[in-house]
Amino acid sequence: MVDPHELLTLAVDIAREAGALARTRRGEGVAIAATKSALADIVTDADREVEALIRARLAGARPGDGFLGEETDAERGTSGVTWVVDPIDGTVNYAYGIAHYAVSIAAVTGEPVSAKWMPVAGAVYDPSLDEMFSASLGGGAWLGETRLAVGAPSPAGALLATGFGYDPATHEGDLARVRRVMPLARDLRRAGAASLDLAYVAAGRLDGYFERGLHPWDHAAGGLLVTEAGGRIGGQPGDAPGRDMTIAAGPELYEQISEAVYR
Ligand code: IPD
Fold first, then answer.
1. pTM for the full predicted model
2. What are the tens digits of pLDDT across the range 8-33?
3. Do 78 and 208 lie in a common domain?
């Protein structure tokens, strides 16, 4: 039996420590260490160092758990819990000196990302603003001590966010989707950190979010924040968020975004 609250306490503690390290390294100056699959797919030494810290802390606290992180090899566990980690989500912002980035840590049960995938605890920590977004299955979504609920969009239009996949071949499709969704919007953001986009939907700072091409570490913790705040996340047949499409919003707007995305 997993205790989501216990997993969440661990995720929050480690996210705070990892965020402090990311903030310190950013203050010392950040260089791009490597470009991976595409120009926008980069890694800094800080991404690697922060992931190593998170991995070591998790292994120390719960040696039987699996691990799936953005920067290192995945490892299967024996406990039925896997940690899904983005050490620095928003690496392009981070590397360019833009303060909008986050540490994202989720505990999931079931194979990531299968039909049985189930995030049970998640922390998204913004070190720049010292904001800790957290959620556990059945325990609600929180910003610090404040319980979160998705917003009700103004009839005048919703504040939406999106992102663009790494692969330039997908950009035409991304832009066509933006054109179809824009009539729903008061305005649109491309802020550059998917976990914070999702946390902001949970907090009612954004009404909705859609993006193609996310990885599990981008949406695992943020997705739980959205559902625990009364929203919906999905996008693919079967309604799991995933590589093909992730949509997050309150239930009514979710349907409208989904209709526009797939029109
Ligand atoms: C990226 C950011 C970005 C989103 C990309 C992600 P990373 O994560 O969340 O906002 O548009 O799809 O891959 O690479 O900075 O960890």
1. 0.95
2. 999 999 999 999 999 999 999 988 88
3. no
